[in-house]
Design brief:
This protein is mainly alpha-helical and 401 residues long. It has 2 domains: 253 residues, no CATH class; 84 residues, Tetratricopeptide repeat domain (Serine Threonine Protein Phosphatase 5, Tetratricopeptide repeat), CATH 1.25.40. The protein contains 18 helices and 6 strands. Strands 2-3-5-4 form a 4-stranded mixed sheet, with helices on both faces. The radius of gyration is 26 Å and the shape is globular.
């Protein structure tokens, strides 16, 4: 038992990440060879499975169908990978408040709203979308499918042989082999991610966008994780180690590697930050509301602060008020009322500012002021979904005292 524990502990221990080696710049991609068609039984079957997933995706209730937003995100993808490559992609934006995007082997790209909330420019968005297109162009999904199948086939035979062994040593050897195989698959996945990073930064190097933004994405993700852990009273995450079963390289490695692969003469290029902010402005209140509902105070507070680093807007003050009011500590409610008041001062006709201000004031014992704010909310938005509930609050006897 002691020997077995030692083996598992050694395999599960995190491996330190070496400093990013000096490397040549990531080359822009070669001319596009045209739309790829699946080859062989495995790939045709995988594509058909993805086609069925896409049919389900097209009718998903969380699919964002806004034409302007879809066209804009697609334009960033096309600017990153080139117009010819872009033709192979069918883009879907999903209302999911997580940092993620993916691309299926049949050309289906999924972009989560949480990603759109976290990146700050077209260049940062292009870095992530280019990474996903790298997976697609290098046919990583098929390679991963074959690797998993061969590994599970081997484990199945090992399980049969282990069951025939006369002693417990057979079961122990099988468990050791199982850990080794799963660890090998994890390393295979990490190497695919590194390859996709290489191709993604290559697309950016050959684009009009600033390639240094790719490293910034992972620097921001580390900061967000730090703030999230601090708010929960947890230890700071380690970004310089690779857990044995990790499917992706650590953020510190990715940030350093992408910085070293970016073309130095690209640092002066436009990153499209102003265009990105303008395109995302109509969606920020909704995306921030979804983020706040994740109950991750530190991450949400960091994201709101980063969005307002060049000046807080009324919607951002409302979002910060919603965040503090959701946590609900007595001091938080006082702070929330102040944030809503800041929003109302910037935009007196913003209904959400009056609503939040009224609810926060009621919670802190300022009934008369709270009722007045809620009445202003109803005047500004008489058809609000919660108009009946708010109407009951303002009409309750004693509420204004």
């Amino acid at each position: 038992m002691r020997r077995r524990f030692g083996l598992c502990a050694a395999l599960l221990a995190a491996t330190p990440v070496a400093a990013a080696p000096a490397t040549r710049l990531a080359a822009p991609p070669p001319p596009y060879a045209g739309v790829y068609q699946p080859q062989g039984v495995d790939e045709i079957g995988l594509w058909r499975e993805m086609d069925e997933d896409e049919r389900i995706l097209a009718n998903s209730p969380i699919l964002i169908r806004d034409e302007a937003l879809n066209a804009y995100v697609r334009s960033v993808l096309c600017e990153t990978v080139g117009a010819e490559r872009c033709k192979a992609v069918r883009l879907y934006i999903l209302r999911t408040p997580l940092f993620n995007a993916s691309m299926a082997p049949n050309g289906t790209m999924r972009v989560f709203s949480g990603l759109l909330l976290r990146v700050r420019s077209e260049a940062e968005l292009g870095a992530v979308l280019g990474h996903e297109f790298g997976h697609f162009e290098q046919r990583h999904s098929l390679a991963a499918f074959k690797a998993k199948r061969s590994s599970t086939d081997m484990l199945s035979w090992m399980a049969v042989l282990a069951s025939m062994a006369p002693y417990a040593r057979g079961a122990y050897n099988y468990q050791s082999m199982q850990i080794s195989v799963y660890g090998r698959l994890s390393r295979f996945n990490r190497d695919q991610e590194r390859d996709a990073d290489l191709h993604g930064i290559g697309y950016l190097n050959g684009s009009p966008l600033r390639p240094q933004a790719a490293s910034v994405v992972w620097q921001n993700m580390m900061t967000e994780a730090d703030r999230s852990a601090a708010a929960r009273g947890q230890a700071r995450p380690r970004y310089d180690r690779i857990p044995f079963f990790a499917s992706h390289p650590p953020e510190a490695e990715r940030a350093m590697t992408l910085a070293s692969l970016a073309a130095p003469d690209g640092a002066a290029r436009d990153d499209g930050a102003a265009r990105y902010a303008a395109a995302l402005a109509p969606w920020l209140p909704l995306f921030l509301d979804d983020q706040i509902k994740l109950n991750d105070f530190g991450a949400s507070d960091y994201l709101i602060g980063m969005l307002g680093e060049h000046g807080a807007t009324a919607p951002l003050w409302v979002a910060r008020g919603d965040l503090y009011r959701a946590r609900g500590n007595p001091r938080d409610l006082v702070a929330a009322a102040e944030f809503y008041a800041n929003a109302a001062a910037l935009d007196p006709k913003l209904p959400e500012a009056q609503r939040g201000l009224g609810l926060a004031l009621l919670k802190t014992g300022h009934g008369a002021e709270g009722t007045q704010a809620l009445r202003r909310y109803l005047d500004l938005k008489p058809d609000a979904p919660d108009a009946a509930m708010i109407g009951m609050l303002v009409s309750t006897p004693g509420q204004g005292h």
